[in-house]
Write a structure and sequence with these properties.
Length: about 300
């Protein structure tokens, strides 16, 4: 018997190294399969319900016997529920909020990371403190704030997308500034000093040197902001007041609001279509997202 075989055989006749390795692989793949099943099962059930023209969430198999795309057709033919308009409203509101949030967050994080000014630490602590309180506690105050603001700036009043975007921007700034500031701190200050010696201004340093280096964290902030605003129901249902202004989540709720037991198929079809923008953004930014999350985990 070779010395390697003797080394791999544990004392007392227990499993060998190869056997333990095989057991660990079986356990790992088994846990991964269970996790994938729990993640995909709700998606498959929603897709199955979207193909069921009876409007029921229950079917004998993954693909119902009478499967059809009738529910998807109803999304675009129902005059009382303009689903395409709701989807466009959500994409527009979420897109504008995402672009503004990324730019404003980048400016604020760069200022907190590179400049030293009075009250800097207190402002950072205030940003975190504001995020501690849930949005539900501030609904009334936000509603009254938009009512007062709308008297001077009509497009930021209650019942406008501008007012909703303003509320979203205030909600996503705190933690995002902290997250991006940590990433800015990981960029060596020697780059700033070298650029200043060459005559570059603070704006040129930010836009031409720092901004390209922090693209991964910008992608992370963008996808988190887009998903958070696109899937929001509570704030949008309070701020928006007319059916043509509804966003995707608020409009989707209307399908089951009146006929609760008859429109689940249309609701499921809308949920499937509504997931497509998020999936496409994930596919488009997946490399940047992975880079931003892994870099942030080690650079702080």
């Amino acid at each position: 018997m070779s010395s390697q075989s003797l080394a791999n055989r544990p004392a007392g006749g227990g499993p060998t190294f190869q056997q333990r390795r095989m057991i660990n692989l079986v356990i790992s793949y088994g846990m991964a399969a269970i996790a994938i099943f729990f993640a995909l099962y709700p998606v498959l059930m929603i897709f199955s319900a979207s193909l069921n023209p009876t409007g029921s969430l229950q079917s004998r198999g993954l693909i119902p016997d009478n499967a059809s795309f009738e529910n998807y057709q109803r999304l675009y033919t129902d005059p009382l529920n303009p689903f395409p308009r709701w989807m466009w409203n959500s994409i527009r509101v979420s897109g504008i909020t995402t672009v503004l949030a990324v730019l404003i967050t980048a400016f604020a994080a760069y200022a907190f990371s590179r400049f030293r000014f009075k009250g800097r630490r207190n402002l950072l602590l205030t940003l975190v403190l504001v995020q501690v309180f849930p949005n539900l506690l501030s609904l009334v105050s936000l509603f009254l704030l938009l009512l007062e603001l709308g008297q001077y700036i009509p497009f930021l009043s209650v019942g406008t997308h501008g007012g909703l975007i303003l509320i979203y921007l205030g909600g996503v700034m705190g933690l995002n500034v902290w997250l991006m500031k940590g990433f800015f701190d990981s960029v060596p200050r020697e780059l700033d000093e070298s650029a200043k010696m060459d005559g570059a201004s603070d704006w040129q340093i930010f836009w031409r040197i720092i901004f390209p280096l922090v693209r991964p964290i910008l992608a992370v902030i963008a996808i988190l902001t887009f998903i958070g605003t696109f899937s929001d129901f509570l704030l949008a249902s309070v701020i928006l007041q007319r059916a043509e202004q509804y966003t995707f989540m608020v409009g989707l709720y209307r399908f089951i609001l009146v006929q609760f037991n008859q429109n689940w198929g249309v609701f499921a079809a809308g949920a499937v279509i509504g997931a497509l923008p998020v999936v496409l953004i994930y596919l488009f930014l997946q490399d940047q997202i992975v880079g931003g999350l892994t870099a942030g985990s080690v650079k702080g």
